[in-house]
Design brief:
two-stranded antiparallel ribbon, 228 residues, mainly alpha, 39% helix, two-stranded antiparallel sheet
Length: 228
């Protein structure tokens, strides 16, 4: 419909039914079993990363998972160089000390080890912490399940070798990604891989750079990208 890359990060359009409407804060009685277009709160839910599909899939069974969400955003959306975790990292238990009264504090402590902190505390955890405004089901929240106030701030790195940018809420992060050249470049690379049905190759660099430059224009849509 003529939408652009930036619209994926900023649109307040969602597709909901009677089962998912309450999770978006909408009246379930106005919807049936089929998914239909709806308008959600743009101050809370701009873009696809604030939709249930992403939020629920990148969460743990009983709690949010800032590591899953943050790693996807940094590596897959922003295209940052995020090294693979050391062997056994996934088995590191979540601390349960009494003073760690929020999921954020627990994850921060869980990833404080020498082999983890350099990546987690700079590239992975910060965007995941900003997304803590959504619970494991994708519902908007302002407190933890036990009533403790949330801290959704984070100093997010948007490009390799760039200084972090301070964010306070998901809308800040979505706006920053929408304007990040690296995210546009990554998006073009992903579309190219899908179109050619293969992984991106260094030989594609010129094509990706040219298309990403076109995407910086104000009237360049995803349809234009596919056609080019």
């Amino acid at each position: 419909q003529g939408s652009s890359f930036k619209d994926y990060l900023t649109s307040n359009i969602a597709f909901v039914n009677k089962d998912t409407a309450p999770l978006y804060g909408l009246d379930a009685s106005k919807y049936g079993t089929d998914l239909v277009e709806a308008t959600v709160d743009g101050t809370q839910r701009p873009g696809f990363l604030t939709r249930l599909g992403f939020l629920m899939n990148f969460a743990s069974y009983t709690r949010t998972n800032p590591i899953y969400r943050g790693a996807f955003i940094s590596k897959q959306v922003l295209g940052l160089n995020v090294p693979s975790p050391p062997p056994g990292a996934a088995q590191t238990p979540l601390p349960t000390d009494a003073d760690l009264d929020t999921n954020r504090k627990q994850v921060d402590a869980q990833t404080a080890g020498n082999g983890c902190a350099s990546c987690h505390h700079t590239l992975i955890n910060p965007p995941g912490f900003v997304m803590e405004a959504f619970d494991a089901m994708g519902q908007w929240r302002t407190t933890e399940s036990d009533g403790v106030a949330l801290d959704t701030t984070g100093d997010v790195i948007l490009a390799d070798d760039a200084d972090p940018v301070h964010m306070t809420k998901p809308a800040d992060l979505m706006a920053a990604i929408a304007s990040a050249p690296g995210a546009a470049h990554q998006y073009v690379s992903k579309v190219l891989s899908s179109a050619y049905q293969r992984e991106a190759d260094p030989m594609d660099a010129c094509t990706v750079n040219q298309l990403a430059a076109k995407m910086a224009g104000s009237n360049y849509s995803t349809l234009n990208l596919i056609a080019d």
